């Protein structure tokens, strides 16, 4: 791998201190500045321009309110509701988005807002140093109750840190925002604030032992290692590279660097930014351990843990092989943040080793996930993309929902022009087939790419200004068949020996007026759901094809400010009533797709189908405001009846419980527990048979705030494991009233889950729309591991 320390040592500081070079060149040396790649008319230009309109509806003073409050300054306006406890995280994303969109378009309002936010953060950073000199010098965060949290944290007391919502994850957003204001917006003040903030991150952990650091890193901490690696690249100061390594989570670094996949049941987007940081550390330190970890993580996630549209995770976690059916059963499918961060990692890996497989993945995820997560009319952002048959997505509204995926969504559509072209030495890489114009100032040439891809299977490059000798490296996509790619220069064929998923190098002196035409014939393929091969998705080239299956009960389609607004709350339609394809020759089922005349990328699916729906397949990224079919259960004739009879019984029981349920906590899972304002002491979590659990011991407890819907005749339903060892006697409380004393010690001695219902007396919940459910142990005692908690209408 390349090691770049020499560059920093010899000439980096001189270059880094100069504004005559774009800041973007200083961190990402293969990337053209966003302002030098102009998007032309097409879906990506539309998405970016719509996104800017949406961004300008947000109020910077409301986004900055948490920062002023924590610095001891009066907020200028009321804070956005955010997710309670994660105040401030959107502000950093917004600053990044302003910088990117200013660089990409020259929009002066974006620049004005970017500069204003940097000025305001500077005031907060100065106030923190004055008001909290013992811990706040350099601090630029909006984490709630910062003074209490960080003053204790610096002394090694994690009691407040451990009950807060991911403080370093929150802070990382402003780290990235300040870096991006310099990187994309050339704001030199942002660079100074960023480095001061990095110094704070070093100082606040200076007194912690390595053991304490690693314990702290068990909580989600975003891309903190990346921030310090960037600071090292910006300055050449070794303290920042040392800090990047100190913030590296060894529980992930060590096994993944050895080729061990230990990702089962881990929160997906907690992990991905760690590996972005590992790769940045590897690039500047030459440390092969960090490099191996980044490469192996990318390989196993993209090869074994990603869906056809490029996204990964269900219920925000990486499933095990046995739990992969959750992609079909659950409605909180891959989250947009995951793909945002996977594309960052992909760019970093490509920078070190420009291989076409990275660009193939990037393209697939860009079209099918990132582009699809913006509503094409009102511009709302998507959190979860369900793969569950006949379900739908929910969109945010400006100034209301403040999810993590709103923050990354703000950025996604402002950097579509970042990876279309890259350069290395004398080579120009054509990575993506997107209508655009490149101004390669170093070579004195301009190149226009004209295409309506993927609606047409070709692209055309024209040298519109200048002349220069360089190597044009054209991506030969993995989805084009061997020998099918055609390239002509000024009408003459280009011969090549490369195979799909490679680059074809064309070395010549290019002149104004030269035309390169590239033919990209697409064909149909089928992709099976990871570890659940009977579910299949249809692809045409890199494009996922899906079908609209209805528009009924799209409850919460545009989310409000509610805590759970990101979840599609309309009815889950029964899995056993979803369309099922019956085909005895599965080896050629993709041949059953018949093109619809006059409608590019639209196909009829000519297969025997049970529970049939309209089978007009179209690009997934064009489906909005509707339920859809992405993965299709595909069976032979013999397997159909047995499967459906079994599935119908299971589905009926599951849906009946869901309809009774008023509120539900998936215990041991980060997001649901945060959603229900968990409190705990002497409590831990784990996983058994792909189900998360939480327990408490020796006088400890855990509790959740849960909704009653202001109803009566309710019961508390708790899931336990049927085979327990040791004493498992504990009390369950509703608010401060004991509901029951439970003893599950060896209660069934059967290796299976069991759900226990406890009737809740009406007097415990009368007049209450919320109650706190608490599992309390006695000194020396322990609860059973609890796998979920429901408040439901009585089933009697």
From TrEMBL:
Residues 550-632 form the DUF4986 domain. Residues 428-522 form the Non-reducing end beta-L-arabinofuranosidase-like GH127 middle domain. The keyword Signal applies. Residues 36-417 form the Non-reducing end beta-L-arabinofuranosidase-like GH127 catalytic domain. SUPFAM superfamilies: Six-hairpin glycosidases. Pfam families: Beta-AFase-like_GH127_cat (PF07944), DUF4986 (PF16375), DUF6805 (PF20620), Glyco_hydro127M (PF20736). This is Uncharacterized protein.
């Amino acid at each position: 791998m390349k090691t770049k320390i020499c560059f920093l040592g010899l000439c980096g500081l001189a270059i880094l201190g100069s504004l005559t070079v774009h800041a973007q060149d200083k961190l990402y040396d293969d990337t053209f500045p966003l302002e030098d790649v102009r998007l032309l008319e097409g879906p990506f230009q539309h998405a970016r321009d719509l996104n800017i309109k949406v961004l300008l509806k947000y109020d910077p003073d409301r986004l900055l309110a948490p920062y002023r409050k924590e610095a001891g300054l009066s907020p200028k306006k009321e804070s956005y509701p955010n997710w309670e406890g994660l105040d401030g995280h959107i502000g950093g994303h917004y600053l990044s988005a302003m910088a990117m969109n200013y660089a990409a378009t020259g929009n002066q309002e974006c620049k004005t807002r970017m500069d204003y936010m940097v000025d305001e953060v500077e005031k907060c950073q100065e106030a923190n140093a004055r008001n909290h000199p013992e811990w706040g010098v350099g601090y630029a965060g909006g984490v709630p109750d910062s003074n209490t949290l960080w003053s204790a944290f610096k002394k090694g007391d994690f009691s407040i840190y451990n009950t807060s919502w991911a403080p370093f994850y929150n802070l990382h957003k402003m780290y990235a925002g300040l870096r991006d204001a310099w990187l994309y917006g050339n704001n030199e003040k942002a660079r100074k604030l960023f480095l001061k903030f990095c110094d704070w991150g070093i100082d606040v952990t200076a007194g912690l032992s390595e053991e304490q650091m690693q314990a702290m890193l068990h909580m989600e901490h975003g891309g903190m290692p990346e921030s310090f690696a960037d600071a090292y690249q910006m300055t050449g100061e070794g303290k920042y590279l040392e800090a990047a390594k100190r913030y590296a989570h060894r529980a992930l670094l060590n096994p993944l660097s050895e080729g061990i996949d230990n990702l089962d049941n881990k929160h997906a987007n907690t992990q991905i930014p760690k590996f972005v940081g590992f790769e940045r550390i590897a690039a500047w330190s030459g440390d092969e351990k960090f490099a191996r970890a980044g490469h192996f993580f990318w390989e196993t996630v993209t090869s074994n843990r990603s869906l056809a549209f490029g996204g990964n995770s269900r219920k925000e976690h990486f499933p095990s092989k046995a739990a992969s059916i959750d992609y079909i059963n659950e409605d909180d499918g891959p989250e947009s943040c995951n793909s945002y961060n996977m594309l960052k990692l992909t760019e970093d890996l490509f920078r070190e080793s420009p291989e076409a497989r990275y660009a193939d993945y990037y393209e697939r995820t860009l079209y099918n996930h990132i582009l699809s997560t913006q509503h094409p009319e009102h511009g709302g952002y998507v959190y979860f993309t369900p793969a569950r048959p006949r379900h739908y997505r929910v969109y945010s509204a400006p100034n209301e929902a403040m999810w993590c995926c709103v923050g990354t969504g703000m950025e996604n559509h402002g950097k579509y022009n970042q990876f279309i072209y890259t350069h290395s030495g004398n080579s120009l890489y054509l990575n993506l087939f997107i209508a655009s114009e490149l101004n390669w100032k170093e070579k004195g040439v301009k190149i226009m790419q004209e295409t309506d891809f993927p609606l047409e299977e070709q692209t055309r490059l024209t040298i519109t200004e200048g002349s220069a000798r360089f190597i044009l490296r054209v991506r030969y996509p993995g989805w084009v068949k061997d020998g099918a790619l055609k390239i002509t220069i000024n009408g003459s064929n280009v011969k090549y020996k490369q195979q799909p998923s490679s680059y074809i190098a064309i070395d010549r002196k290019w002149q104004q007026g030269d035309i390169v035409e590239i033919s990209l014939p697409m064909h149909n393929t089928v992709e099976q759901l990871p570890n659940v091969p009977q579910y299949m998705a249809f692809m045409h080239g890199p494009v996922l094809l899906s079908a609209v299956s209805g528009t009924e009960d799209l409850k919460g389609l545009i989310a409000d400010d509610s805590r759970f607004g990101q979840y599609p709350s309309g009815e889950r339609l029964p899995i056993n009533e979803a369309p099922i394809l019956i085909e005895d020759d599965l080896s050629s089922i993709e041949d059953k797709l018949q093109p619809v005349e006059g409608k590019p990328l639209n196909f009829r699916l000519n297969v025997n189908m049970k529970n049939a729906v309209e089978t007009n397949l179209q690009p997934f990224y064009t489906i909005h405001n509707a339920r859809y079919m992405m993965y299709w259960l595909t069976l032979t004739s013999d397997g159909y009846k047995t499967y459906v009879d079994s599935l119908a019984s299971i589905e009926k029981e599951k849906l009946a419980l869901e309809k009774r349920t008023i509120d539900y906590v998936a215990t041991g899972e980060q997001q649901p527990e945060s959603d229900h304002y968990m409190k705990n002491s002497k409590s831990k979590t784990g996983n058994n048979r792909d189900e998360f659990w939480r327990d408490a011991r020796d006088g400890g407890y855990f509790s959740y705030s849960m909704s009653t819907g202001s109803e009566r005749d309710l019961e508390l339903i708790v899931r336990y494991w049927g085979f327990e060892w040791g004493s498992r006697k504990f009390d369950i409380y509703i608010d401060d009233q004991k509901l029951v004393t439970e003893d599950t010690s060896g209660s069934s001695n059967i290796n299976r889950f069991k759900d226990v219902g406890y009737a809740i007396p009406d007097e415990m919940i009368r007049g209450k729309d919320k109650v706190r459910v608490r599992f309390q142990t006695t000194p020396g005692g322990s609860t059973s591991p609890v796998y979920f908690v429901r408040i439901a209408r009585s089933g009697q």
